[in-house]
Fold:
Amino acid sequence: AQSVTQLGSHVSVSEGALVLLRCNYSSSVPPYLFWYVQYPNQGLQLLLKYTSAATLVKGINGFEAEFKKSETSFHLTKPSAHMSDAAEYFCAVSLEYGNKLVFGAGTILRVKS
Amino acid sequence: GAGVSQSPSNKVTEKGKDVELRCDPISGHTALYWYRQSLGQGLEFLIYFQGNSAPDKSGLPSDRFSAERTGGSVSTLTIQRTQQEDSAVYLCASTLGGRVADTQYFGPGTRLTVL
Structure:
C-alpha cells in the first residue's frame, strides 16, 4: 500500500531562513505527488504538484519541490521564509489507478521574527 | 468563480443523533471527494464520487456513514447514531475531471463535535 512519511511534525525557522520540509513516499508505481498548505481554520490549498513532467516543480508563494525517484523523496523548499508562511503543510500521493489522496501526517511550520 | 462550499461550518450534536453535512463543489466539477481530519488519524479519505456514482467507498469507517450525490453536484454525508470518535473536521474536495493528476480543490470543512 502506498504511504507518505513527513519527517518532523514541527519545524521552526527564522524569518529569511531556508525552509525545508521533508516528504518520502512508498509506491511500487510512479506516483503523483502533491504539497498542500492549511492555514488555521481553513481548508487545504494546493502549493504544487508533480505529475511526471519536470522533476523540479515550482509552486505558489515561492515554494518548490524536487522529485527524486532514487530517494523516493519530494521535499518542499523555499529560499527565504516569511512570517505568512506559518501554517501546516501536507504531502500527499495518488496513484494512476486510484483517485484518492493519501496524506502524510503534516508538518507545522513556525516562522520566528 | 466560487470555490467549494460546505455547510454547516460547525455542528455540535449529542451522541446517538444523526447529522447531515453538505458539500457544494465548484460548478462543472465532475468528481467529488470526502475526507476526515482528526487529531488521532490525520487526513483520511472517505469516499469518491464521479458524477452521481461512488466507485470508491473504501474509506467509510462503518455502516453508520453514508453519502450521496445528486444532479452531479451537491453531496451530503450522513452519519447515523453519532459517536464521540466521529468528532473531526470533514473536508470536501472537487476536481474537474476526476483524473488522478487533477488538482483537488478543498472546501473550508465542517467541524463536527459529538458530546
